[in-house]
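Fig. S4 source data, part A: sequence.
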Amino acid sequence: MRAVEAIMQCLKAEEVDVIFGLPGGANLPTYDAIYDSGIRHILVRHEAGGGHAAEGYAKATGKVGVSLATSGPGATNLVTPIADAMMDSVPTVFITGQVRTDLLGTDGFQEADITGITMPIVKHSVMIRDPRDIPSAIHEAFHVASTGRPGPVLVDVPQDLSRADIDYEPITSVDLPGYQPTTSGNAKQIRLAARALANAKRPVLYVGGGVVNSNASEQLRELALSDKFPVTATLMGLGAFPAPHEQWLGMLGMHGTRAANYAMDEADLIVAIGARFDDRITGKLDEFAPHAKFIHIDIDPAEISKNVPAHIPIVGDAKDILGKLSTEYKALNAEPARMNEWWSKITGWREQYPLGYEDSADSEIKPQFMIQEMLRVTEGQAIVSSDVGQHQMWTAQYYDFPEPRRWINSGGAGTMGFGLPAAMGAQVGCPDDLVVCLAGDGSLQMNIHELATCADNDIPVKIFLMNNGFLGMVRQWQELFWDRRYSAVDTGKHPDWVKLADAYGATGMQVTDKTQLGDAFKEAIETEGPVLVDVRVTPEENTYPMIPAGQAARDMVG
């Protein structure tokens, strides 16, 4: 069969049920094979939208997301989604077309060295040199993308090789001797960690996106509830531990709760699980958690002690390790009363510094109120995809996620324009769930064209637009740290979002009165197809609390 037909057979063997992509000259043979493949293909309006949709699909379902693009600009338009997937450890496979092999290196039309361009931002990449290698390359791509620390894999296929005839034999197993990620944690280290937990008087469980990726939420809850361990999470870890809960401190980091950040600052033992001590968490690194010893559990050995030295490092899969750690800890019969003073202090912080804001006395819609109404109307059961900025932080603060894979956002890369296509991918992967895209007026315009994709493919994403007329987070920094010199942050009065939604084949609505907001959200949810609700909020509201960049947790403001 043709090599491209073998690609389709491989995708079906990997149980791929949908592909997000855009055709062009170099991948025309692939699209010809899609025609008869039986695999659903969703035509996106921009390759970046296809890449982010594959991410959203992967984050919501736990399966590998797949995106296709042609050569040259088609492939380079995937660079941002690939970098985003790498930063957030998202299992994705990107298949790009390439110019014919006789044109490689000649600067042929739409030639780009996409494997070279993306080398620093992929988990693995390969350019096909022999069409007979295509089946093994596709299966290896899925294996590498989905095992160990997940991430993006790129397969670049020259057009002439994709059209070649090959003898196709199904591949039933993948053997990569040079790629053997450690999954089972060292038993001795796990026992040491259990003893450290039993002796700790001020412990904190610090949870990252790795717990979600490894489907370890049940094991995390078991460990947390094996005693009264305080739990906090990064932006990517939200939902790994149910919120609200008496042991839940809220998110930590730059816009985390004071209780979470103060607890980290005064802890004597921090158990980092699937987290990488990012600068948004640590602030001033040499003043981070000065009294704490660190247990660091991570599937990627390169993360251990990268930023913060680990006293007890454990390399392996969080699901496997947490289950064993709970068993070892319970066997020690630790004294629960040792943490009484710690919980008294945490309770004091919670009471003294609750999340809060000054609501408007009139009909003006405060951004925080918008999130609270969204939580109330959806009853916390929506899959929420967000763009990047103030609205993202307010959602992390005020929307309680009861379980994992309900929060889809761009963490490490902070990619504006991520929200809508990611919501689209999540909705395709979870067709029976309510999917809400919480967007900002700055971010949404970056990939608003995917609203046409939603309308044409009956993807009923509900977009709740927090419209403050600014690039809000940049404006906040200019206000606080640049003497209110507002440079290039006013997004103006355009577009008319209701008309734009209607033009794309969606339903447009606008709300300016907080007393009407809940009813508008309900109407949007009950309306068939994609809906965009333009919510006009307070223009210059700031996201607090906040740790100024490069400062310590104890220096929080707001």
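Fig. S4 source data, part B ends here. The first strand starts at residue 18 and ends at 21.
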